[in-house]
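Technical annex, item 7. During the second reporting period the consortium partners agreed on a shared format for inverse folding records so that results from different sites could be compared directly. Each record opens with the tokenized structure and is followed by the designed sequence. A conforming record, contributed by the partner at site C, is shown below for reference.
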């Protein structure tokens, strides 16, 4: 058999699923990056091994391989546990398909059940976000017109009042109308078209850090753990600043409200490789973690924190995280959150759409 080269299977490198190709003797001739990531082994070590040795004692998989090879028809096994030669176990679904190729005879396609659940959750969140955005936009438009009329009527009434002391009441109406107008404007902000340009994620974080320190200079220690080798991404700088600021400000407010001793906020950046976002595969993404040691998100709202008008902070509008999610989605990214008392972590994944690497902002890790 001809020894395969990477070019033979270059079309498989960008698939989100894990792919393993076998020859007529059931030896591995190729695995794609997705398989390396899911099963935590390298192509160099596995290529040439018998599939029985890569996944020892897995009768379900071996039966599917044998049947597909003998009957020359695809076989699919749903939701079974597979263990690698390194004794790591995974819940997967596998399809074994015969192929007509000079370099391989079987293709094994694995889908990790955890990954499938994550994709399904991401799709549900996207649908919910679109519904929320449409609801808020319609609500904002419906409220703005009568709100303007209310404010105008209060101004006219103020000029007709017989006593200046009564103006206190019209001023309350005018100020509250202005406050609601500002809220409506915030609801409509996400629908303004983003201005995409090369953006340095660390410049975004440094801007957020300076804003937080200006608001509460002694309330919290802000630590930085940056990977300064990260390339720029194509994004809207102002919207990214607002998204990160909304998350970080929520954390600071939560720690302040509970008088968290030794309040600490951490910004961490790393490169994440072979990431699937909205069913699209990216070679590299920026992984941004915003962590705090505060009281955590209340359990009763933990699954709804990205919904509009849901807030765990007293006096909060419940729009900060909704807007943050909208802005990140506009960048084809996603936000996830894990929270427990003493540790909350928001993880933002942002795909890098450019291969141009430019110097990062200078920032000493604290």
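Designed sequence (site C submission):
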């Amino acid at each position: 058999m001809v020894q395969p080269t990477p070019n033979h299977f270059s079309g498989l490198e960008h698939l989100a699923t894990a792919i393993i190709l076998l020859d007529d003797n059931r030896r591995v001739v190729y695995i794609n990056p997705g398989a390396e990531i899911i099963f935590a082994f390298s192509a160099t070590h596995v290529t040439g091994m018998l599939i029985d040795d890569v996944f020892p004692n897995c009768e379900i998989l071996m039966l599917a391989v044998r049947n597909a090879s003998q009957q020359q028809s695809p076989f699919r096994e749903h939701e079974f546990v597979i263990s690698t030669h390194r004794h790591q176990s995974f819940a997967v679904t596998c399809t074994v398909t015969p192929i007509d190729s000079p370099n391989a005879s079987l293709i094994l396609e694995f889908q990790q059940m955890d990954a499938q659940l994550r994709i399904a959750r991401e799709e549900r969140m996207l649908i919910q976000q679109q519904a929320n955005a449409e609801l808020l936009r319609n609500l904002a438009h419906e409220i703005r017109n009568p709100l303007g009329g209310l404010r105008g009527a209060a101004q006219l009434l103020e000029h007709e009042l017989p006593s200046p002391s009564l103006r206190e009441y019209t001023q309350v109406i005018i100020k509250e109308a202005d406050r609601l107008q500002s809220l409506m404007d915030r609801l409509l902000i996400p629908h303004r078209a983003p201005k995409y340009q090369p953006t340095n994620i660390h410049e975004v974080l440094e801007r957020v850090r300076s804003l937080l320190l200006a608001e509460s200079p002694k309330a919290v220690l802000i630590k930085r753990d940056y990977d300064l080798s990260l390339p720029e991404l194509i994004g809207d700088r102002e919207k990214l600043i607002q998204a990160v600021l909304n998350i970080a400000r929520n954390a600071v407010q939560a720690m302040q409200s509970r008088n968290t001793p030794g309040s600490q906020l951490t910004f961490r950046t790393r490169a994440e490789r072979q990431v699937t976002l909205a069913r699209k595969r990216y070679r590299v993404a920026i992984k941004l973690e915003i962590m705090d040691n505060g009281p955590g998100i209340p359990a009763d709202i933990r699954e709804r924190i990205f919904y509009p008008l849901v807030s765990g902070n007293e006096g909060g509008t419940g729009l900060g995280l909704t807007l943050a999610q909208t802005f990140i989605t506009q960048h084809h990214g996603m936000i996830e959150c894990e929270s427990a008392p003493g540790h909350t972590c928001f993880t933002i994944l942002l795909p890098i759409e450019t291969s141009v690497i430019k110097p990062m902002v200078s920032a000493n890790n604290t």
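The radius of gyration is 27 Å. The longest strand covers residues 264-277. All partners now use this format for quarterly exchanges.
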